[in-house]
Amino acid sequence: MIRVSVVGAKGRMGSHVVDAVNGAADAQLALALDAGDDLTAITPDNTDVVVEFTVPSVSLDNVLALVKQGVNVVVGTTGWTDDKLAQVKAALAEAPREGQTVFIAPNFAISAVLADHFAKVAAPYFESAEVIELHHPTKVDAPSGTAIHTAQAIGEARRAAGLGDMPDATETDGGSRGQVVDGVHVHAVRLRGLNAHEEVLFGNAGEQLTIRADSFDRISFMPGVLLAVRKVASGAYPGLTVGLDHFLDL
Ligand SMILES: NC(=O)C1=CN([C@@H]2O[C@H](COP(=O)(O)OP(=O)(O)OC[C@H]3O[C@@H](n4cnc5c(N)ncnc54)[C@H](O)[C@@H]3O)[C@@H](O)[C@H]2O)C=CC1
Ligand SMILES: O=C(O)C1=N[C@H](C(=O)O)C[C@H](O)C1
């Protein structure tokens, strides 16, 4: 039995994770904590893997504290920058237990992970690429962590293929062209009724490729969360790993 504690357990994602762990034959819920609860209650004596879904402003501090407390962490919260990832790596280097793991996924839905992968494959073949993410209006961050990850993957693939800047004659822009992430324009839509959606547009003269992933319900993230919990509990991924693609045979 994998003993799983959930941090952010009262949130939209955390509450689904509590249900998913309770419904898994090989996992059992240890602690379910939320804002104001004492994180130091989580120790290797009661927990094998912590699942952290909180808010970008607190996630780094939670992860650093949990690493210091000797537990493995699966993180779904967004807001990760290179600087924050470097702090996690440094904390892991000083971790009290050998082989401790932090796993961070911008997105746990298989549709989103595959969309990201297909975008990486397509990127070298197109002159233009833009990312549009569409979410529920209660989301606090924009653009989404997934869209940033996708844009970075496209930027990296374009660089590796020796592609230059994308064609764009815009001379005046009051913000309509979106946020530029690694040379890729990213647009965020917030609309009542939506959950989590992403569209990647690729263009060449006379043709377009659209890759789209839709998460209609938060249950779509749960198989990925449980996969990550199992992989991390196996001890086969010491250190920091980012992206569910590492656990899929892509
Ligand atoms: N990686 C993925 O597949 C997904 C990631 N997300 C990300 O997960 C995060 C959470 O999203 P939601 O669940 O929709 O947000 P939410 O606002 O519904 O839940 C956040 C929870 O964290 C709690 N919290 C705040 N500060 C805390 C602290 N210091 N310690 C413990 N708990 C604390 C809040 O009280 C709340 O219950 C966001 O960053 C979101 O973008 C959301 C969906 C999928
Ligand atoms: O806040 C959300 O809902 C989501 N957040 C993640 C992100 O920012 O990419 C993952 C998914 O898009 C849902």
UniProtKB/TrEMBL annotation:
Per UniProt, (S)-2,3,4,5-tetrahydrodipicolinate binds at H136, G145, T146
Give residues annotated as binding NAD(+): G8, A9, K10, G11, R12, M13, D34, G76, T77, T78, A105, P106, N107, F108
Q: Where in the cell is it found?
A: Cytoplasm
Q: Which NCBIfam families match?
A: dapB (TIGR00036)
Q: Which UniProt keywords apply?
A: Amino-acid biosynthesis, Cytoplasm, Diaminopimelate biosynthesis, Lysine biosynthesis, NAD, NADP, Oxidoreductase
Where does the Dihydrodipicolinate reductase N-terminal domain lie? Answer: 2-108
Subunit structure and binding partners: Homotetramer.
**Every Dihydrodipicolinate reductase C-terminal domain range:** 114-247
Q: Does the keyword Oxidoreductase apply?
A: yes
In the record, the note on similarity to other proteins reads: Belongs to the DapB family.
Presence of the UniProt keyword NADP in the record: yes
Q: What is its main location?
A: cytoplasm
Which residues are named in the active-site annotation? H135 (proton donor/acceptor), K139 (proton donor)
Task: State its role.
Answer: Catalyzes the conversion of 4-hydroxy-tetrahydrodipicolinate (HTPA) to tetrahydrodipicolinate.
Its lineage opens with: Bacteria, Bacillati, Actinomycetota, Actinomycetes, Bifidobacteriales
Q: Which organism is it from?
A: Bifidobacterium miconis
Could you identify this protein by its name? 4-hydroxy-tetrahydrodipicolinate reductase
Q: Which PROSITE patterns match?
A: DAPB
- The catalytic activity of this protein is classed by the Enzyme Commission as 1.17.1.8
GO molecular function list: 4-hydroxy-tetrahydrodipicolinate reductase
**Annotated InterPro entries:** DapB_C, DapB_N, DapB_N_CS, DHDPR_bac
Pathway field of the UniProt record reads: Amino-acid biosynthesis; L-lysine biosynthesis via DAP pathway; (S)-tetrahydrodipicolinate from L-aspartate: step 4/4
**What is the reaction catalyzed?**
(S)-2,3,4,5-tetrahydrodipicolinate + NAD(+) + H2O = (2S,4S)-4-hydroxy-2,3,4,5-tetrahydrodipicolinate + NADH + H(+); (S)-2,3,4,5-tetrahydrodipicolinate + NADP(+) + H2O = (2S,4S)-4-hydroxy-2,3,4,5-tetrahydrodipicolinate + NADPH + H(+)
